[in-house]
Amino acid sequence: MTSKLRLVFATLLIGALAACQSGVKLDPNAGAGNNPDATGTQTQPADTTQTTIDPLSDPNNPLAKRSVYFELDSYIVNDEHQQLLQQHAQYLKSHPQQRILIQGNTDERGTSEYNLALGQKRAEAVRRTLSLMGVSDTQMEAVSLGKEKPLAIEHNETSWAQNRRADLVYQP
């Protein structure tokens, strides 16, 4: 019985010693920074080149959103789109060489004449809003596509809501 206890005790002692062993090798020069006689190497920062990404090309930038949606038979720019248009206005004012085409769209309901007129009113409403935000009239053009360029092709309210919009198309 005593030999079994000794064997268990020896095993526990060896296990405890093994657990205390560190796998990390200590740096013999650690703390040399405080020693004035120590020589060390100083790492040079890597060459850093700043690249500027055009916010229009950045899918994470708010300017990536370029559609303003409207209620049924309406051409009133809702409050929820004011901030988006403000961001586009800031960009256009800071880039006076940039031009946009505002395309007014409608859903498939209604006559062609009605949809062309409503699409034009939507495009003009967005243009007028941007103009009030300080964008030059020479930077904007408003056209109607009516129901000719649907974003969604299903015949239900969800699709029609996606098609009632004005798109901001930046011109090269």
Description of the molecule:
- The protein has helices at residues 2-20, 82-94, 112-132, 157-163; strands at residues 67-69, 99-105, 140-146, 165-171.
- It starts with a helix and ends with a strand.
- Strand 2 (99-105), helix 3 and strand 3 (140-146) form a beta-alpha-beta unit.
- The protein has a domain at 62-171: 60s Ribosomal Protein L30, Chain: A.
- The model has no long low-confidence stretch (mean pLDDT 85).
- Helices cover 35% and strands 14% of the residues.
- Residues 1-18 form the signal peptide.
- Keywords: Cell cycle, Cell division, Cell outer membrane, Lipoprotein, Membrane, Palmitate, Signal.
CATH class of the domain at 62-171: Alpha Beta
User: What amount of the residues lies in strands?
Assistant: 5-15%
CATH homologous superfamily grouping of the domain at 62-171: OmpA-like domain
Distance N to C terminus: 92 Å
Shape: elongated
Low-confidence stretches: none
- Mean pLDDT value: 85
CATH topology category name of the domain at 62-171: 60s Ribosomal Protein L30, Chain: A
Question: SSE order in H/E notation?
Answer: HEHEHEHE
Tell me the strand order in the biggest sheet. Answer: 1-4-2-3
How much helix, percentage-wise, in residues?
25-40%
Radius of gyration: 34 Å
Number of helices: 4
Main structural class: alpha+beta
Specify the biggest β-sheet: 4 strands, mixed
